[in-house]
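Re: Re: ligand-bound prediction request (bumping)

Still looking for help on this. To restate: I need the protein modeled with BJW bound, output as structure tokens. Inputs repeated here so nobody has to scroll up.
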Amino acid sequence: MEETLQALREALCEAKTVAALTGAGISAESGVPTFRGKEGLWRNYSPERLATPEAFARDPRLVWEWYNWRRGIIHRARPHAGHLALAELERKKSADQEGRRGRFTLVTQNVDGLHDRAGSQSPVKLHGDIWRVRCLDCGREERNEQVPILELPPRCHCGGLLRPAVVWFGEPLPPDQWERALAASAQAEIFLVIGTSAVVYPAAGLAEVARRSGAKLAVINPQPTPLDHQADWVLKGESGKLLPRLI
Ligand code: BJW
Ligand code: ZN
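Reply:
Sorry for the wait, this slipped through. Here it is.
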């Protein structure tokens, strides 16, 4: 493990462009539940049964109860040393390096905002933001930090139903965020995959985009992932412990 860490550390130092894709696992050590695995289930509902426009249409109150529960947990959570290490890597890479400017792009599937709170500058948010809501009728989107939202389901000034401004199954990702993620992945010399089961597309496909464009791949996860066999480095462990040691 120490050898792999050291090899990746040296490669990160050398690389001019680095991108990272994070998932729910990076927030697990902050106390935010992941989606999959038995701890990921909420009242026996899987994310595939709650995170869909059909589920919201059928029972907006039930879906909002799930989001209320998660907003409470995230509100109480704090970023940990792993989130801070990624913010630090970003600062290191954007500082002038021997006259050449490096770049680090953080792409997250998480909606919790913990990367922002750790100091990352405008991370790419592929799946939206749990602290924003959008009206089904007039389309107005706004920040909403109420914890918990008392009247469920909440309504817009226009009377329309408000939904969380997140990306559910079957919905397109925000085009501007997707474009940024694609560009960063295609340009990366090293692509880090941290705390994601890498089964939800198109996000998981970014690793393949990076690799086909010549990037080396590193996976940081205590469990196996479908990307391990194509990775140049596989670090089996928790992001809160490994990332500070790496960076
Ligand atoms: C640790 C750790 C520690 C634990 N340290 N690690 C069939 C085949 C292929 C694709 C499809 C298909 N059928 C449908 C699709 C497409 C679908 C999809 O991918 N489905 C698959 C599940 C099969 N994708 C979509 O629908 C996407 N949209 C789309 O494709 O649009 C096309 C379109 C185009 C044009 C018009 C219309 C449509 C949208 C996907 C949206 C996903 N949304 C969610 C909810 C977001 C909002 C919210 O948070 O409420 O996103 S679902 C959920 O999964 C959430 C996550 O971001 C996402 C990924 O999960 P993640 O982050 O990987 O978490 P887990 O729990 O899976 O894994 C945690 C990992 O951490 C584990 O590996 C642990 O080991 C690890 N870990 N502790 C490090 N301490
Ligand atoms: Zn409205």
